[in-house]
From TrEMBL:
Claim: Transmembrane helix is one of the keywords in the record: yes
Record's keyword terms, sorted: Membrane, Transmembrane, Transmembrane helix
Name of this protein: Flagellar biosynthetic protein FliP
Residues that span the membrane, as ranges: 21-39, 51-70, 82-100, 106-123
Organism of origin: Nonomuraea terrae
Amino acid sequence: MTTTTRSGRRWGRFALHYVEMIIAMFAGMFGLGMLQSAVGLGVPHTEQPELWYLVMAFNMSVGMAAWMRFRGHGWAPTLEMCAVMFAPVVPLFPLLWLGVIDADGLMLVSHVAMFPLMLAAMFRRLDEYAAHHH
């Protein structure tokens, strides 16, 4: 196998992991969110945006952590990826409290910020995410 082929497979595994994380994130968000709503524990984002965000980040983290552990990743990278779900609140909550953004802005910016933050966490452990896990 040539170096180019190995490099291509390495980046392919990296990209596959990124897609898997997005799917697991949304599965956790929608699956647990629907379950919470079904039992009367849903939180509307416009009425309680801080609580809504924290619950959403937790739900996404559950989906991602479950999938990462299933795929053989250790606790450190799993918890780092989960932390990325909560990271956007650092600059956004104060902006919300100051009235610079509203609940819809919080939802939009937090979701957009998660994707590059996930990539940053993955690049931090490039060998972890470009390696073969099953």
